[in-house]
Amino acid sequence: MNYDEIQEILQKVEAQKLHDFVTFALQKFPSLQTDFKNEFYEYFPQQSKEDYKREIYHAIDLAGGSDGYIDYDETDNYTGAMYGFTNQASKLIENKNYMSALDILETILISMTTTDIDDSDGCRWDVADDCMANIKNIISQAILENEEKVYQRIFTFLMHEAITGEIANYGIETSDLFNEFIDNQMYLREMQKEFPKIIAKSDKYKAKIYQELLQKIEEN
User: Fold this and answer.
1) pLDDT by residue for the chain (220 residues), tens digit each?
2) I need a labelling partner for 149 at 20 to 30 A (CA). Which of 18, 19, 38, 71 fits?
3) Three-state DSSP class for 70?
4) How far apart are CA 12 and CA 10, in angstroms?
5) Burial of 11 (0-12, 13-18, 19+ CB in 10 A)
6) Exposed (0-12), middle (13-18) or buried (19+): which is 187, by Cβ within 10 Å?
7) What is the pTM of this model?
8) Could you tell me which residues are beta bridge partners of residue 117?
9) Could you give the CA distance from residue 205 to residue 115 in angstroms, rounded to a whole number?
10) CB 191 within 8 A of CB 213
11) In angstroms, rounded to a whole number, what is the distance separating the alpha carbons of residues 64 and 101?
């Protein structure tokens, strides 16, 4: 059915029957619940990071089917689910609920280290880029609104990743977000202290990234 046909039928269906059908569909198809929550999140009680973690990892499990591996033909299931969560994070950012948005975005990034997927089409990096764009937006807003707990949390997350390389081991580089803090003259001493240690134990590629960040700090 096309859009117009669906609209025509919906206009004829009684509200209660439509309500009953949606209830039935949500109970029968758990994967639909994620889309439903992402679309109408503002009507749900505020969730904890553990709640988001359960939902995100469950969505990843569903994307891969019974064998747990997300093959090339199933990557749309994965990206569709993850973009649903990043869209929810975007809406939370619009409502200035930065901490909940970070709960989602950090969980997605960390989940990439254990997600068994054929990402030869770059789907994992596309989702990571979306997460990074949202986090960059949060940094800008939090600094502007002097939300210290928010930008401190992000800086701590970035520094932990810079030291451990947990996410970077999967080709996902978060270091560019440090530029937001450098441009705003924030945490410069902390970066000057830690970056040389990171450079000393890194490969040439990663070392170059943090050398350039250090140079930018010195130029500022």
Assistant:
1) 888 888 888 888 888 988 888 888 888 776 677 778 767 767 776 788 999 999 999 999 989 877 889 999 999 999 999 999 999 999 999 999 999 999 999 999 999 999 999 989 999 999 999 999 999 999 999 999 999 999 999 999 999 999 999 998 888 889 999 999 999 999 999 999 999 999 999 999 999 999 999 999 999 7
2) 38
3) strand
4) 5
5) exposed
6) buried
7) 0.83
8) 70
9) 24
10) yes
11) 25
Measured CA to CA, the distance from residue 167 to residue 110 in angstroms comes to 7
Helix axes 75-94, 49-64, angle to 10 degrees: 160
And the tokens for 150? 């928010």
The answer to whether 108 touches 53, Cβ cutoff 8 Å, is no
In angstroms, the CA 117 to CA 111 distance is 12
Phi first, then psi: give them for residue 147, nearest 5 degrees: -90, 80
Cα gap 185→179, rounded to integer Å = 10
Residue 117 sits at φ, ψ, to 5 deg, of -145, 145
Q: Which residues pair with 70 in a beta bridge?
A: 117
Q: Yes or no: say if 52 and 82 are a contact pair by the CB < 8 Å rule.
A: no
Distance in angstroms (rounded) separating the CA atoms of residues 213 and 84:
33
Residue type at 14 in one-letter notation? E
Question: CB neighbours (10 Å) of residue 197?
Answer: 12
Domains of the chain: which residue ranges? 14-149
Judge whether 127 and 79 are in contact, CB under 8 Å: yes
